[in-house]
């Protein structure tokens, strides 16, 4: 991989909480256009890593580069404007808005405007059209005018992906996208992630090995804050240290 193919990388990224090191000298490298999974047992430091990459937490030491640019000292909003977008938690989707309205709010956020529900009809139409396109992309077009509250769980996660897409991500960070889902929803969301990955890069924390095996191009395994292994699924899943630390557990 030459440096041009790397969209995001970290150099000795470290986060300590009162003497406890949750992320320890991590050198992560995410290839442009890939689906990259971050895995590891509970407490391995995955969430802390995501919080560092989006600057919800500041690193204790080390650096973060996006497209070769040092973004370590940037604020969360600046990083989001560069196109590093973390999937919204379901709680961040407004339950009493319709599905379309939720995507429109995300589009307005992406434009850096406030929530002008009173915007002139013309610009509302433009936003609605784009929102409808995104709903088609995630397969929710039949639910456009449904109150979000009434969506089934798997569809809420698809809506979450649509609101993330609305922010025009270059790099999407997905936080356990299939967590708590039944088999059918897992398959649907996996297929959706694979589809929206075209032309984008995805870094995801995911526990479901079937999901990882079917769509992840590369995997980084964290253990106690450090990288234990990195590579394609086949290689990583056959690594004895990984089997012992994670796969076998
Ligand atoms: P994972 O997402 O892989 O389960 P986390 O990143 O949530 O792991 O946590 C890594 C370790 O850091 C855990 O031992 C956790 O208890 C600790 N940790 C995370 N956040 C904090 C915090 N704000 N203060 C103290 N310890 C924390």
Automatic annotation (TrEMBL):
Residues 8-249 form the ABC transporter domain. It comes from the Bacteria. The keyword Cell membrane applies. GO terms for cellular component: plasma membrane. InterPro entries: AAA+_ATPase, ABC_AA/LPS_Transport, ABC_transporter-like_ATP-bd, BCA_ABC_TP_C, P-loop_NTPase. The keyword Cytoplasm does not apply. Keywords: ATP-binding, Cell inner membrane, Cell membrane, Membrane, Nucleotide-binding, Transport. One of its GO terms (molecular function) is ATP binding. This is ABC-type branched-chain amino acid transport systems, ATPase component. It comes from Polynucleobacter duraquae. The lineage of its organism: Bacteria, Pseudomonadati, Pseudomonadota, Betaproteobacteria, Burkholderiales.
């Amino acid at each position: 991989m030459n440096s041009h193919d790397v969209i995001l990388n970290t150099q000795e990224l470290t986060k300590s909480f009162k003497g406890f090191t949750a992320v320890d000298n991590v050198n992560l490298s995410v290839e442009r256009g890939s689906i990259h999974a971050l895995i590891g047992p509970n407490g391995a430091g995955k969430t802390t890593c995501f919080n560092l990459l989006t600057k919800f937490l500041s690193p204790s030491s080390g650096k973060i580069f996006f497209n070769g640019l040092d973004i370590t000292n940037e604020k969360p909003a600046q990083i989001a404007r560069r196109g590093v977008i973390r999937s919204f938690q379901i709680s961040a989707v407004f339950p009493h808005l319709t599905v379309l309205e939720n995507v429109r709010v995300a589009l307005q956020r992406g434009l850096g405007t406030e929530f002008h529900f009173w915007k002139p009809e013309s610009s509302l139409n433009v936003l609605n059209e784009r929102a409808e396109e995104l709903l088609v992309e995630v397969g929710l077009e039949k639910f456009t005018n449904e109150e979000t509250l009434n969506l089934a769980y798997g569809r809420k996660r698809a809506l979450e992906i649509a609101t993330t897409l609305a922010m025009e991500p270059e790099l999407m960070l997905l936080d356990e996208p299939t967590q708590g889902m039944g088999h059918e929803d897992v398959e649907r969301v996996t297929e959706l992630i694979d589809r929206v990955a075209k032309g984008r890069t995805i870094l995801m924390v995911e526990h479901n090995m079937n999901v990882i095996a079917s769509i992840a191009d590369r995997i980084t395994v964290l253990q106690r804050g450090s990288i234990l292994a990195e590579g394609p699924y086949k290689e990583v899943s056959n690594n004895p240290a990984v089997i012992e630390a994670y796969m076998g557990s």
